[in-house]
């Protein structure tokens, strides 16, 4: 028996539809054909197996205890997921009967693993083939089925996925338990989840929120001058140019070369007004711009977030529906923006289908230049999957929702752009020197819209008025400064993240990497997470109460800020995670060793768990003197305290405000009650201990008094191990 195993039921049905009949449907399978040529198609439902829970390896690991950390399994195990156990039994029976197996998982890292792990779990001995299906239309599926490959060619992809799964288990479970238990010792409740991808993403949001919260606007000054040619035969049109800073004024500029001194600005403006100068640079050109490449998932999510205010998960879910249910687009979880050269021959069918599904694009389909071939078609740039494009299907399976129409239209527009003319920009630049000062004027205008006619604008009714064209003056032409003006502006903080900008940050993570050498080595494609997981990561941070929405902006909750504040910088920054992704990619290419990767990770985890409490590991390796561990702790809940500005001056406030309103004066940074020390848990109920004074001297009592009456003797300002009294 020949068995096809698809990643999901919709793909299984599409494979069965492309195989010869008759078709016989069973519980979790479809048989196609008769006799010796009969083929059975079955499917997974996402991951049928999941990494075993800690208690499976060691019963003692069921309880969350510091002494059990770190938890490193000797031999990795997987276990059936309860929700899909029935389908796993169906596959077990079919795999044991199969003489040939064809792996039809999605063409990505996870798609490779989730079918491979089922085949391994049942110890299949039959030879395994691999088919890559990007498009669920019958013709495309039939073509893919005719080109099977040996599944062993994809073993490195499977090794990469397995290393990712095991690394996530080691990192997530050990650090989540460690920081949750640490917070519980401080009186906090709930789970403080830490993950290799989600935590750096949270760190990006917290850092952006902190930058905005601490931002102090500063005034800066922009100098502009109005010029006119002096020669009568020259173009007499006036033009406005902006002052260019030079080294002479470095002491008055900020890091973005903005002038901070009004006095200097006034001196410059007065020194050029009414004086002659000359053109030192004159550049005018018509610059062609090729159309953008078709969309990957991240590019689609960023554009849909910007244009339609759609969340990343909403975009993915909508695209998945267009792919599975309506079969109107190709595989959506793609990180590629190029197309196989063989796809060029399908352009007429696809354009006809676009016109039928989206009548508002029919005119653009009619105007398409079918002889044009852009850089999008390039076999060297295509790996397991290609860019997201419309299929040749001419009608949806039912009525499209408003969101589905928007996403299908956006994907169609980017495909149509490949058959539109280049946009042509008219660009001009004049540089003028007056005395020792330089001024520059620029001109930009769209001469030929070309593919830009297909671009969706954010606000159709608010197009900026076109700038007046610059006069065509030659280099060396004398000019006269008619007047000069000074405009005072204020520096602005960056915007809070939105779905689109956070996805863009995750995709181009090299911009946020702090280490200069590491930033040089990272490719722009190395990001946080994968195309398929980024939306789910953001959604998880919302579910775990780390992020919240403020209108269209994404902001960090107090819980999220507190976690990032407590974590070592190397856990909350994207540097290490970006290197992980690069390492996993090297494993996929056969250049990296998954065993070495996991051993190095174990060493890192040991370092995190063995780090002395109160000394966060920053990028420099030195303790941060402003960190809450070096500050007093709250007398009410024992959480760390930070300095704040108040009505009557600075004071220490609890980091859990407004849930806790504990305060203390600055002069009580080292109080005798012991609350300046890191909280020490009560041996009876694990609430923080508090140092108290009685007639007989100092002792330590439970902060949960009178619920818990545990006390300990005082030993030079610290609780003695020996119990004094217990109830």
Would you mind describing this structure in some detail?
The protein has 727 residues and is an alpha+beta fold. It is built from 20 helices and 24 strands. It is flat. Mean pLDDT is 85; it is low at 612-629 and 722-727.
Could you give the topology of this structure?
Blueprint: E1 2-6, H1 9-18, E2 23-26, E3 29-32, E4 39-43, E5 49-51, H2 54-57, E6 78-80, H3 85-97, E7 100-104, H4 109-121, E8 128-130, H5 138-145, E9 149-150, H6 155-185, H7 198-213, E10 219-229, E11 239-244, H8 262-272, E12 276-289, H9 297-308, H10 312-324, H11 347-357, H12 362-367, H13 402-416, E13 423-434, E14 437-448, E15 478-490, H14 499-507, H15 516-521, H16 534-543, E16 547-550, E17 553-556, H17 558-566, H18 569-572, H19 575-588, H20 594-610, E18 641-646, E19 649-654, E20 663-664, E21 689-694, E22 697-702, E23 711-715, E24 718-725
Parallel strand pairs: 1-4, 1-7, 7-8
Antiparallel strand pairs: 2-3, 3-4, 5-6, 8-9, 10-11, 10-15, 11-14, 12-13, 12-15, 13-14, 16-17, 18-19, 19-20, 21-22, 22-23, 23-24
